[in-house]
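[step 3/7] fold_predict: job queued, chain A
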Amino acid sequence: MRGTNSKIVGVLTAAVFLGGCSLFGGTNESGKIQFGQGFQRVSAHAINVVHPQTVFHKGQFIGWVAHLKKPADATSITLTILSSGRHPSTLVTESVPVNPHWNELAHSQPVRWLEALHLRAPGSYVLRYARGHMVLAEGSFRLTG
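[step 4/7] structure written:
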């Protein structure tokens, strides 16, 4: 992560731990990240995004549920946030601890939290979870002014 801030990383890590979930099978959203204003656990085996949307502005919360293609199968995976467009660049790369059996991850924070990670509005971004070179889930969102 550019300009590593352990407080931000700690908050992200804690949220991923709280949002992890193990399912018995894949979902129709396998490999995708759904965005919204938060997430909620709907059962012992499922997490849903709250108020789905992909465009966010200051004053809102951004949340996501990542439906991994396969269980994490590792004790940590890589979270990457890239700028989107003709010349994408990596803005954040962070190793996040996970349970190897999880195949869903969830996180929620105020949009202003993204500014500390060098994301600026307006802008389009891609969020990706990967294990090595294997992309486990990916999705895109936009920030407006």
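[step 5/7] annotate
The first strand starts at residue 33 and ends at 43.
Residues 6-144 form a domain with the Immunoglobulin-like fold (CATH 2.60.40).
exit 0
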